Amino acid sequence: MSDVISSLSAADVQTKAVMQVEDADAQQISALLLRFGLLMKMVDPAHTIPGSYWGESEAGLIGNHIYCRPDTPLQSLLHEACHFICMDTERRSVLNRDAGGDFDEENAVCYLQIILSDRISDFGRDRMLTDMDAWGYTFRLGSSRAWFEQEADEAKQWLQREGVLSSESQLTWVCRE
User: Fold this and answer.
1) Residue 41 contacts residue 91 (beta carbons within 8 Å)
2) Residue 175 lies in a domain
3) 36 domain residue, yes or no
4) 129 DSSP assignment
5) What domain count does the chain have?
6) Cα–Cα dist 37/173, whole Å
7) Pairing of strands 39-42, 60-62
8) Has residue 170 been placed in a domain?
9) DSSP states of 23-50 as a string?
């Protein structure tokens, strides 16, 4: 069974103090995602986000485009981006809203979003872990930090096996084949 369960609605997220896309350097985020072939598209705040699985302000995926608004939680944007990175080529070629995947892949996505958060100024791992907890991720050990530090070895190994991380746990800057 998966180590992570999302339990809050997008409306609940807005009552929490999670960092949003508008709080970060959108050009830096866009450049980071482009390294994986993912194009970030900003949506007008008054419009629905195309390809959003969760609705409201949550990021959306269609093909190699990731959609967000200024009020999109940054953890949501990175989570969906990591789904794109971690899915196989076949699923990526027909991607429209539902990233799919199994439990191991979902855990790898969570691990990778934490790693990628360190590449965003004024965000980083500590804030990502806090925001994941605020959004409603739940782990057996009680927090995102405890999971990442004590129980995420299988997720890291999955990313290494699939070529997303090197054997030294460094980003390879390639998507899963």
Assistant:
1) no
2) no
3) yes
4) H
5) 1
6) 10
7) unpaired
8) no
9) GS-HHHHHHHHHTTTPEEEE--TTSPPT
pLDDT at residue 54 in the model: 87
Full-model pTM? 0.89
Which residue bears the tokens 């482009």?
Answer: 34
Are 67 and 19 within 8 A, CB to CB?
no
Residue numbers of the domain that contains 96: 5-161
Q: For the purposes of burial, counting CB atoms within 10 Å of the CB of 30, is it exposed (0-12), middle (13-18) or buried (19 or more)?
A: middle
Phi/psi-derived region of residue 163, left when phi > 0, alpha when psi is between -120 and 50, beta in every other case: left
Structure tokens at 94: 């027909």
pLDDT digits (tens, 9 = 90+) for 8-38: 444 444 445 899 999 999 999 999 999 999 9
Query: Does 56 map to a domain?
Result: yes
- The tokens for 32 are 């980071």
- Greatest Cα-to-Cα distance within the chain, rounded to the nearest angstrom: 44
Please write the tens of the pLDDT for every residue from 162-174: 999 999 999 999 9
Half-sphere exposure at residue 65, Cβ-oriented, CA atoms within 13 angstroms: 12
Given a contact cutoff of 8 angstroms between Cβ atoms, the answer to whether 66 and 79 are in contact is no
Torsion of CA 138, 176, 116, 3, to 10 degrees: 10
Q: Which of 7, 8, 3 is nearest to 107 (CA)?
A: 3
Averaged pLDDT, 71-89: 97
Residue type, 160: Q
Enter the tokens of residue 47. 């419009």
